[in-house]
Amino acid sequence: MDYDLLIRGGKIIDGSGLPGYLGDVGVKDGKVVELGRLNGSAGRTIDAAGLVVAPGFVDHHTHLDAQILWCPYGTSEPENGVTSVVMGNCGLALAPVEDGVEDAIVKSFVRVEAMPREALIEGVRWGWHSYGEYLDVLEGKVGINVGGLVGHIAVRQTVMGEDSVEREATPAEIERMQALVREAMEGGALGLSTNRNSRHYREDGKPVASRLATLDELFQLSDVLADLNSGVVETIVNLSDRENIAWYDQLARRTDRPVIWQSVLHRYASPDFWKIQLEAIEPTFRDGYRAFGLANTVPIYNRFNLNNAQVFDEWPTWKNLMFLPELVRKQAFADPETRGKLKAELAQPGYSTFHRRWDLIPVVEVAKPENERYLGKTIAELGQMRGQDPVDAMIDLSLDEDLKTTFLSANGGDPEAMGEIMRSPYVLIGVSDAGAHVQFNASFGYSTTLLGLHVRERGAMTLEQAIYKLTFQVASVYGLHDRGLLRPGYAADVVVFNPETVNAREWEWVQDYPANTKRLTQRADGIEYTIVNGTVIYEDGRLSGDLPGKVLRGSAYAGQRQPVLA
Ligand SMILES: [Zn+2]
Fold first, then answer.
1. Cα of 8 from ligand 1 centre, angstroms
2. Beta-carbon count within 10 A of 474 CB
3. Residues of the chain with pLDDT under 70
């Protein structure tokens, strides 16, 4: 038998950005062995006529650290063509961990990533200490390839205990943290992640541990990566303004490692801000250093009603009112004087995170049948239909419906701007956040959204460019040197999809988390086959049950050092 698997007659788009070409892909022993017009015998042949054959996508921004322990495919990753994931982003990882520190780590995951506590308690069977030991637990038990970053929160919590959420570290503590980061990198971590987002708290209201770190502490931990010549430094802050971009630049220059920062988004509240960000990072790249911004293929969505909303927290009268008991709040909404104040606050000029673009916020749920005519109408249209000021219309309709009327605000999403951001060479695409915020949203389909919405429908870039962005670009930055391309010698991680139909589906509720908890997930149309290390794990809309995934270890791995290809 020449090949274990032969994928015949598809359009090969190999991840390099080069134009696609018609041909066959021959796979043997988990690797791509030959491409072109192939005539050998094969254990299995897949007819890919009319389909695109590409490297499997690398979802580098996930929080699957816990889910992967009970869900070996990280569903719905393979349904969206993903064959490799990186976990441990935003400072959050399940290792290193000292006995007794487990609950503090759970507290951070529960709040920052909005994971159900019961699911974590039941689903995470601790028993490891170092990062390498955590990765060892996954060996042989995963259906997709998994790698991870060591999280600053776990490192700090392990070294400093509860002091980690109270104060700066001493030089001796930083030294211990450096030792843990080194141990994690030598255990196979793909880098270090940190969290400096001032909105990120633990479940008990304390800031997550890494927020107490000085920049100097972060820089000293990153020095370990520089010293090992391995890994990325991944970061999250609230807003990547010039001040933050200055230290990304400093860190990239100091370590020569790729720095990843969040995020470059189009925001309606400051529509040109992304240009300022990309301009600010230009000199870093020009001088030969790397600090990639992260971009998503979908806007940040917020569902709200006047019973449960955080979007108005920026305005004092609104914020106070939203914390009042429901009955009192309704009276306040109805009171003309208070109403005047509420409207005046929303009319104030200046920057606000919530953009107040009433023409962009539709009604997505109504409580009364007679109000169904408002469904899908924006708050601005609501005002016109009712002959009212838009804010009055929003409040009055809500009062009429016991505050149950639900609205959907999307922060950003101008197609032109999104296209330009995603095309930037300084931007990595993909914030699936898979495994996180599981009861608020699901973005597993960032990849299929790129291919369907942005490439096919909007023409934002070529298919070749998009696939490069989903594969080779990411694999290169993360040091996954034998993945992300379809070339002889590379791992046979392959996705076969229909370019005419590929797209993400709507979110759906599933009840597959431990402790019977529910979560949102997102599947896709048009993904025909997902292949991991030469084994078909997804076809006909079903997962096979095979577990061919590998643990992806970084180049500093001191265990059985693997030969690095390419
Ligand atoms: Zn994240």
1. 38
2. 25
3. 560-566
